[in-house]
Amino acid sequence: MRKIIGGMFVSLDGVIQAPGGPTEDPTGGFANGGWMFPIADEKVGTVIGEFFSQPYDLLLGRRTYDIFAAYWPYADGEVMGKAFTAANKYVLTKGGQPLLWANSHRMGCIDDVARLKQGDGPDLLIQGSSTVYPALLAAGLLDRLVLYTFPIVLGSGKRLFGNGTSPGTLRLVDHQVSPGGTVIATYEPAGPVETGSFGAIESALEEERQAKIKDGTW
Fold first, then answer.
1. Beta bridge partners of 6
2. Are 5 and 143 in contact (CB under 8 A)?
3. Fewer CB within 10 Å, N- or C-terminus of the chain?
């Protein structure tokens, strides 16, 4: 059985949009495209290389696929471009647009991904593609997530975990800090969210606050 392993570049305030270039994804008027490169250092590049060092196929959302397909096959001399073109690319999309990049395959729903995961082959790596995470987490299909958290605040833009993401806990299994301050943390799913309290306090003010919460006036 394959593993599904995600890798994501993220700001301190959780923004993942368009790290790679100014025109990568201006959706919503995002004006900070290309924010990663001025603050990425050699250590970050080394860890990214390690992420793609073993045999892999790619699992991508449709928009990330479009970005990659319009760039990597035309990046002459780029080792990554040749590797991405040679890899099988499984695209989770409900649309019917043609997937013209070599070795591209359509995944119509999360059940298709589950069947693919059960089969033989190399691990499935996700780069970008934030829209695939809610469904993967809900189905229990994500095995590992590597977050590259850069020391930058972007204020607005697409977030890693959007609406519809299932609650759950993650366990830290590895971490590194680059000289430039990027925290590279590797997580694995660790079960449902458990709740608790530091202890209940009885007070008239707390009773009043709870009453306001109940009637929607707090």
1. 126, 145
2. yes
3. N
28: left (phi over 0), alpha (psi -120 to 50) or beta: left
* Structural element, H or E, at residue 64: helix 62-69
Q: How many CA within 13 A on the CB side of residue 60?
A: 24
Nearest Cα to 99, choosing from 55, 58, 48, 158? 58
Tell me the Ramachandran region of residue 59: left when phi exceeds 0, alpha when psi lies from -120 to 50, beta otherwise. Answer: beta
Distances (CA, A) of 111 to 4, 125, 201: 14, 17, 47
The answer to whether the pTM exceeds 0.70 is yes
Q: 């073109």: which residue's tokens?
A: 85
Task: Dump pLDDT digits (tens) for 31-72.
Answer: 999 999 999 999 999 999 999 999 999 999 999 999 999 999
- Tokens 């999309």 correspond to what residue? 93
| CA 75, 79, 131, 185 torsion-angle sign | negative
Q: Of the candidates 66, 174, 59, 47, which has an alpha carbon nearest to the alpha carbon of residue 122?
A: 59
